Amino acid sequence: MKGFQYIWLIVVLCLPVTAQGLYAQAEESDGPEDKAGLRYPVPKQAPLSYEDLINPVMGDLKDPENLETTIEYDLNTGDYVLRTRIGDNDVSTPISLTPEEFRTYWDAKSRADFFKKKNQVDYSKKKEAFSLTDLQFDIGAAEKIFGPGGVQLKTQGSAEVSFGVKNNIVDNPSLSERARNRTFFDFDQSIQLSVNGKVGDKINVNMNYDTEATFDFDAKAIKLRYEGKEDEIIKSLEAGNVSMPVKNSLINGASSLFGVKTQLQFGKLNIAAVLSQQNTQTKTASLSGGVQTTPFEISADAYDENRHYFLSHYFRDHYDQWMENLPYISSGVVVNKVEVWVTNKSAVMDNARDILAFADMAEPARIHNAYWTKGQNNFPSNDANSLYAEIVGNYADARQINISASVLEPLAAQGISIGQDYERLESARRLEPNEYKLNTSLGYISLNQALRSDEILAVAFEYTKNGKVYQVGEFSTDGVESPKALLLKLLKGTDFSPQAPYWDLMMKNVYALGAYSMSKDNFKLNISYQNDTLGLYVNYLSEGKIANQILLRVMNLDRLNLNRDPIPDGQFDYVEGYTVMSSNGRIIFPVLEPFGSHLRKAIGDEVLAEKYIFQELYDSSLTVVQQLTEKNKFRIEGEYKSSLGGADISLGTMNVSPGSVKVTAGGVLLNENVDYVVDYNSGTVSIINENLLSSGTTINATCEDQGIYNMVRKSMAGFHIEYAFSKDFCLGTTLIHLSEKPLTNKVDMNTEPLNNTIMGLNTGFTLQSQAL
Length: 772
Fold this sequence. Notes:
- The N and C termini lie far apart (112 Å).
- Among the domains are: 50-126, no CATH class; 308-506, no CATH class; 516-634, no CATH class.
- It is an alpha+beta fold.
- Helix 11 packs across helix 12.
- It is elongated.
């Protein structure tokens, strides 16, 4: 309490002094004005006079947001009234300005506002931090060339890098200890990058890079473009991904090019020139009478590999005989049940079993290894030879897949080896019925997905012949419980040389047209041979017993008429399931070796036959066959009707380059979004002009297929010159040179690289009808 008493005492003593000071200040304020001004004056919130308006101070304390200054014109006095208000209330006396005073004030205010705004822009630029994703800087005197705006570069994207270590342990006794345990680094990256840049207002740079792109040609794209002003000679100059459209309907330009392109103008004369590399190929589809037809052309060596397999040699050996009387099949066979097993390339273990598959299993006649003796049964079955009984009786432990190699080791002395005579496979995958098609009368299967060279195919099946049921191999329901291996018939092993006993079980008389859901209507097929004397493809041979007969009939593909009577009519015999598979666009020859042994027999002269046949097609691997260009002279060609609606045209490719589609009707170029629309993702053209559909005019659609990217290298150079006499009349000329780089330095006959030059003229005239 004593402390508080002392404080109060000090306060009381100070009060007289404070009062005396206040009184002295009051006296000074009553005297004459004698005070110093502020170094940095503070503006008034509301001007009180005209002098306050025309002599603003430099400081700015920011007026409240609800403080508003308005200017009103007084019609009675002709003066301008400046008010400062908060809401409807004046916070100061309104100032009246004469017209001259108002102009002086407004000019000063406008100049101040202009420089204030400029200063704010410059200040904000200085505050911006340096950023690699958004670069901007001036180019000084170069703006006279490239225009204002400086250099602007914006970068967007992401980069992801993953790094790890993988360790694979495979408990396979056939492998060495080192091969069973493998450790390796796992490195992966994902980059998506987009760069957009400008130099002035004339040069644009666009670049995209995506390692996750679906197609290789979408992974990288770059374009540099210089765009001139209206009156400049150089209208544009492009480098990178460019296009060269051509107005001439008889000359196809290109939209997927990589090179340099320029557009020049000299008054009414316009020039477009390009020097580039082309990585695409033109594809054509047509629509006639509301029906789309797509042409196809297949060489003899392009059979559908690793997809179609006979269940045993018995079915292969009788194939030609059973197909002689199409559409009636004389096999007397009905395959009741089949289980198909393949190498398991996935991590899914449902329906997975260990299997042992033998090439000679159930073979009554075509026994590769003489160690197995023929049984009394002449049809494929487990007792057709001694293989199945001996494995079950003497090598039962071979069902344990981890020791099967050692258990079967004694058979090696009899020439029975893994890879050729049998295969052992852990966790093989059983295919679902919707993953393949079975021909129950001819005894072969067609896989939806072709096998790779290192994959194994094995089956177990049951069939009826002459009322008796036969079984080949073991079904998963036969009581052999896992993990014991099933004994199966081997159709394809890892030794895929022509010497393998299962080599000829793969069918080489099936060809894929690249179509889906084909229709018998409007389907045409022809077989032609390249005649060296004529230099043309003809549909007949001029020598032998079949001289001047059409090859379609020689190959037994023209035996029937439209009513299925055995009368040739010159047309392909469209027999579903036997000569065609409409659902997946395959054609099947009714003979095993149409261009080999069958043609030899048809010619009837051994010496003459050697001049024409292509027997190596069936006796050698495709790698060897494709080197024999001097014998690969047969061609399968024709057209098929698409499964699309009457107004749609399928281009036969996906991810079409925008702008590359050209559609003509009767030779007249149609307009996109007026006569047709294009779905570039699915490669479909939809005709929206009903008059074109109802007229029945043939409509052709062409596009550039990028599916052969990185395979074909073509160089394209050319120009298009056009002179516009008026806005309604023009005359132009086009010259394009296209050359192709061969894949090898040595070029075979009939595979010469492309080297063509084409020139054309075009004109356009538009006249508005006065009658409409």
